[in-house]
């Protein structure tokens, strides 16, 4: 059995007492990287009309909402995360009218839409920064060290490589934790707070259902901007508190935004949400971002970074659930996004592992995020020519190449699992435009080419090629999302571990058992119930079932 249902699904049951009222608590949300999803005008770059035309595909896939990466006016120094005008659509992607029509069409299909907001920094082309006097009020400028101020104010490093400071023609320095074209805002200035609240209201008025907050852990810096004392600082993100990330002061900002979101939604009969992209050193610190008076969700990067080993996965799942339960929030699971190596490649280059990891994720309590193309089993593209790359970290000297190719690091990761970090300058590999149909590039992406070259062997991975094939990864995702929607035991709610041999995970949800074999070989277990869905062909022989290596199976119990 692959993913065919072998018996009728269990009858729907009333939601359990732990299921909260918010739609986000068990939503499956699909990330669209706008420039790589679908191109409507032939310029080789995805756009809002392209997304709008493909909304029925997302509806049929079975997701509940869509998250759009930035499409605002931008010089595109960092793929749109350098925003020059937060209330204007960049002509690359369309018009404000296109954005409004996309939102309306999505809502007509029953899909909610979350848009990105980028509050840690703007573009250096933003009107605030191009005005020298205004810039020094609303961004972080400091005098340099040394006799003539020729040294940076401290030893902080850019996430993209090199120093986090750039000197101006006035002799002072401005902070940019990312590219020099992305100056950090001064969140001690109340005008910055007021502006971002106004930006949120603008997009809510247009119909957005919430915001994914970029670098939600970064707006507040430690008093005095103290030195860290050593290099390779980007490698510490998510493992310890740093003076420029995960400072306690960010939580006052998120509490103010929660008041705004709740007040706006209550006044209009809508539920609008905030989602934190927050790298925190522990699940307990991450849970602070989703306390009842802060944001609704926070990406669980500890799960994304976990090794494909039963003990490691169980430890991360336990700690994540305990931390979010302590504040009454759902856990938010994710395996891939536009900043990390695709999990098909990251998990040892194994499509079998990637499929199993997805079924595991979708069986866990809480919400889940999918990244465009993972439903097709797309691998990381590791052989892009240097001349086509656009990741700013690539040009800042932070490049590394592991044995598994650019963007991977198998030597430092356990069990041959590639590093999840994409900040080494190879993030373009997960951003290659989607293949929709046909045998050759651009595979239906648009009437022209594609801004990054697509591999010549992706013909069998297109949406058209996989549709209707019961063994395909696309049909596995469709089946899993359909079951998740129909079975009330999945999504938010209770979970209990069940006994299992070494290398195997087993847990129950109301009416469902999930078994995960993380080993590279088959394991025989007593038949636990009726198979609902499996990531690989499953053999059931009376009282015994043979779980394939690197597989996940859902059972009706």
Sum this structure up briefly.
Helix content is 25%, strand content 16%.
What does this structure look like?
The chain has 14 helices and 23 strands. The protein is of the alpha/beta class and about 550 residues long. Strand 1, helix 1 and strand 2 form a beta-alpha-beta unit. Helix 1 packs parallel to helix 2.
Helix content: 10-25%
How many strand elements? Answer: 23
Low-confidence segments: 1-20, 398-423
Oligomeric organization of the protein chains: single chain
The DSSP helix count reads 14
Main sheet, how many strands, which sense, barrel? Answer: 8 strands, parallel
Radius of gyration: 23 Å
**What percentage of the residues does DSSP assign to strands (E)?**
15-25%
Mean pLDDT, as a whole number?
90
Question: Secondary structure elements and their pairing?
Answer:
Layout: E1 28-32, H1 48-61, E2 65-68, E3 72-73, E4 85-89, H2 96-108, E5 112-117, H3 127-130, H4 132-138, E6 141-142, E7 165-167, E8 173-175, H5 190-206, E9 210-213, H6 250-268, E10 273-276, H7 283-287, E11 297-298, H8 301-305, H9 310-325, E12 332-334, H10 343-346, H11 351-363, E13 367-371, H12 392-395, E14 401-402, E15 405-406, H13 463-466, H14 473-486, E16 496-497, E17 504-509, E18 512-517, E19 523-526, E20 530-534, E21 539-541, E22 544-547, E23 551-556
Parallel strand pairs: 1-2, 1-13, 2-5, 5-9, 9-10, 10-11, 12-13
Antiparallel strand pairs: 3-4, 6-8, 7-8, 14-15, 16-17, 17-18, 18-23, 19-22, 20-23, 21-22
Helix pairs in contact: 1-2, 5-6, 11-14
């Amino acid at each position: 059995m692959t993913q065919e249902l072998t018996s009728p699904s269990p009858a729907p049951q009333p939601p359990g007492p732990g299921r909260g009222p918010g739609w986000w608590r068990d939503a499956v949300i699909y990330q669209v990287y706008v420039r790589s999803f679908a191109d409507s005008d032939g310029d080789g770059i995805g756009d809002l009309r392209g997304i709008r035309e493909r909304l029925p595909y997302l509806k049929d896939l079975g997701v509940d909402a869509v998250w759009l990466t930035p499409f605002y006016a931008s010089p595109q120094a960092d793929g749109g995360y350098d925003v020059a005008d937060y209330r204007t659509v960049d002509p690359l992607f369309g018009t404000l009218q296109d954005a409004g029509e996309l939102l309306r069409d999505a809502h007509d299909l029953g899909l909610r839409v979350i848009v990105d907001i980028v509050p840690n920094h703007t573009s250096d082309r933003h009107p605030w920064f191009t005005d020298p006097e205004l810039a020094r009020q609303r961004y972080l400028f400091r005098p340099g060290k040394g006799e003539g101020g020729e040294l940076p104010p401290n030893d902080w490093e850019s996430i993209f490589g090199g120093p986090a400071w750039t000197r101006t023609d006035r002799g002072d320095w401005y902070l940019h934790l990312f590219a020099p074209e992305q100056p950090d805002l001064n969140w001690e200035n109340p005008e910055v707070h007021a502006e971002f609240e106004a930006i949120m209201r603008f997009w809510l008025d247009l119909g957005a259902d919430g915001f994914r907050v970029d670098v939600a852990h970064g707006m507040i810096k430690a008093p005095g901007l103290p030195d860290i004392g050593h290099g390779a600082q980007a490698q510490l993100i998510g493992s310890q508190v740093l003076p420029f990330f995960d400072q306690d002061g960010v939580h006052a900002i998120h509490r103010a935004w929660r008041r705004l979101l709740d007040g706006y939604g209550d006044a209009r009969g809508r539920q609008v949400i905030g989602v934190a992209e927050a790298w925190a050193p522990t699940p307990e610190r991450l849970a602070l971002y989703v306390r009842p008076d802060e944001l609704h969700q926070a990406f669980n990067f500890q799960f994304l970074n976990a090794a494909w080993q039963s003990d490691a996965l169980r430890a991360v799942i336990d700690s994540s659930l305990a931390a979010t339960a302590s504040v009454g929030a759902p856990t938010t699971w994710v395996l891939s996004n536009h900043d990390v190596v695709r999990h098909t490649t990251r998990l040892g280059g194994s499509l079998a592992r990637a499929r199993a990891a997805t079924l595991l994720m979708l069986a866990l309590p809480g919400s889940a995020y999918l990244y465009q193309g993972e439903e097709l089993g797309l691998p990381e593209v590791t052989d892009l020519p240097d001349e086509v790359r656009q990741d700013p970290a690539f040009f800042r000297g932070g490049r590394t190449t592991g044995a598994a190719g650019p963007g991977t690091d198998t030597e430092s990761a356990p069990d041959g699992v590639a590093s999840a970090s994409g900040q080494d300058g190879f993030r373009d590999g997960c951003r290659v435009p989607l293949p929709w149909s046909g045998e050759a590039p651009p595979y239906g992406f648009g009437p022209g080419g594609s801004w990054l070259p697509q591999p010549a062997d992706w013909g069998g991975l297109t949406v058209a090629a996989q549709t209707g094939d019961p063994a395909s990864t696309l049909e596995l995702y469709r089946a899993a999302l359909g079951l998740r929607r129909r079975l009330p035991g999945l999504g938010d709610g209770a979970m209990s571990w069940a006994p299992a041999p070494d290398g195997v995970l087993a847990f129950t949800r109301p009416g469902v058992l999930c078994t995960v074999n993380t080993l590279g070989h088959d394991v025989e277990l007593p038949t636990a119930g009726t198979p609902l869905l499996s990531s690989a062909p499953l053999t059931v022989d009376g009282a015994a079932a043979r779980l394939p290596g690197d597989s996940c199976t859902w059972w009706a119990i």
